User: Fold this.
Amino acid sequence: MNHLSLIIKREYFAKVKNKSFILMTFLSPLIMAGLMALIVYLTSLNNEKERIISVLDETGFLNDALISTKYTTYNFLEGIELQSAKIITNDNAYYGLLYIPDLPLDLVSEKIKFFSKDTPSLTFVNNLESKIESRLKEIKLENSGVDLSKIENAKTYVNLNQESFQGIKTSKVSSFMKLAFGLASGYLLFMFIIIYGNLIMRSVIEEKTSRIIEVIVSSVKPIKLMLGKIFGTSLAGITQFAIWVILLGVLLIISSQFFGFDVFTTPQQDVVTEVMNNKINNSELQAFINDFRSLPILNLIIAFILFFICGYLLYSSMYAAIGAAVDNETDSQQFILPIIMPLILAIYVGGFTVLEDPHGPVSIIFSYIPFTSPVVMLMRIPFGVPLWEQILSLIILVITFMVIVWLAAKIYRVGILMYGKKPSYKDLLKWMRY
Amino acid sequence: MNNLLEVNNVSKNFGNFSALTNVSLNIPKNSIFGLLGPNGAGKTTLIRIINQITFPDSGNVMFDGELLEPNHVKFIGYLPEERGLYKSMRVSEQALYLAQLKGLSFLEAKKQLKYWFEKLEISDWWDKKVQELSKGMAQKIQFVVTVMHRPKLLIFDEPFSGFDPINANVIKDEILQLREEGATIIFSTHRMESVESLCDNIALIDKSQKILDGRLSEIKRKHKTNSFEVGLITKQKTALKKLISKRFDVTNADFKSLEDNLKLNIKLGLNDSSDELLSFLCQNSSVNHFKELIPDINDIFIQTVNNN
Assistant:
């Protein structure tokens, strides 16, 4: 067996057999699924809480506007003073009291009050406000002699049917899908780099502190050891990720059974479905499926794999170099920050600029800069990037990757045999010239 | 080709610091070569160059008649001074891993490992993790890892550190046996008594330069001062000393003996022989101690480094 595969094998099994790694692999999805289930459960609990609200409407404007629902009951009080209404509400432990004072229509909107023991939730207040607003508006319109049914008939919804000059149909929904793909792949790369880059760095530091490094580099070239470490750790990372995805899926299904509700239809989703049912008719659903089909799936997959691998290798070789330069993890902080910065920048540029304008100058520039291009380009591609741009960006990335690996290997070669002194950036530059 | 390793005019600088300046060494086959020098003299740099961990700025290294190249790594076994093992890995697993990195097949590595474990009577450590072993135990494993691929050239940097006297002796015997079996050994240490008892040849490096090298016996011969330590039984110590002083260069000596004798160090002149001294002493007293003063390597080391 050649050196590289031996090293990859050792690094892989050293990670995979590690107790804390195993624990993390199986515990994290459990914790995540647990948290998700808890959040879903609590949300449903919150929504199902029954609220009784006393309404003291001295004007009678709101009689028809506030209709009790399953969870919210409006208890109209009549013919009593505000003070006694407050007492009744408080004594019966109602959720709150809505007070509409007896004022003319054009003045009353300023004076409506809501009394409650606790501060009511924002959603609740918004909901109530919009109900009152629309009722008052209706009354005002009626008073000025407008026929409400005519207004109802005049309501128009516009949804632009988007189509490129080549005849490819898109829609807002498809934009969301592109956005979701871009964000997901960008964040995945970001997470992967941070988690497993750190793991590589720690494993380099471990070799230094255990003093085994000199024995090993007397058998293999340091660059082989470095690459072996990067590949071995990455394979362990992919294994962990795969297990997470599978376990999370299984756990979600199990927990949905266990808690007796369907996690895939949370109360929020009910609303969404409702909205979808109302607003999206069949033809739009068809467009949605077409959109999905018309996404450059093959391009996306290939680009994702290439940019992901190159981007990850670029960053992880820098992590390996840092591990070689320092003696312990505390010393590594000052070197990690400059590495993380472009990554965070990429996420920000990707998250804001690209989604705003995927083919604007900022997006284009950052999708060529090798330290940000993996994330930014992956976010841009769903919106349609010419092939030559992708290839050019990839070539720049690969060249940078090779230069960085070469430099990292130089730092690595010198750094692994340096003990004691915490190096400065000047030292690192010097090591590159040795 | 009598030399397994030839170092020719090797220089190495780290920035402005020069670690080796024009160092040349010949290491004969099947010998133990002591590489000596004060801390920071450049020994480790030289050893790392031989191991191809670092590379010389100028000069070259010949291994068994060929210019040193990556393929030679499998013929070299190196026990560095800064050494260790993966703490959470099983002893056997990592020994097999390291041996495979040196080019052994898995089966061959396993065979060799079993052989050495039985030889050193440590077979029950096979499944232990390194973190469960004591320092001395871990050092033994490292020794096995260094030798198990049967290298032609063995480089030991302070091989006895961390060993108790019994185990140090075990390792010393193993080193001697490896030489018997044909290995060439470079031995770097600050323990002069082990240099004395093991090395055939030595080289002394100080401030990046080689300041002394050759066969140990010849170096000693060169450094001897033609002095003798004698013990004489006599009733008139002062008179006898005076008498000898007239003929030879005499100083008082201090050594242990059972008799209350006159103890002297006598330095011979250029034309005197030890026979002359002995017969002169016999004529005037009864000799019960007569020993040539051979400088030990410790003295030579200190003297040469200080002169430098």
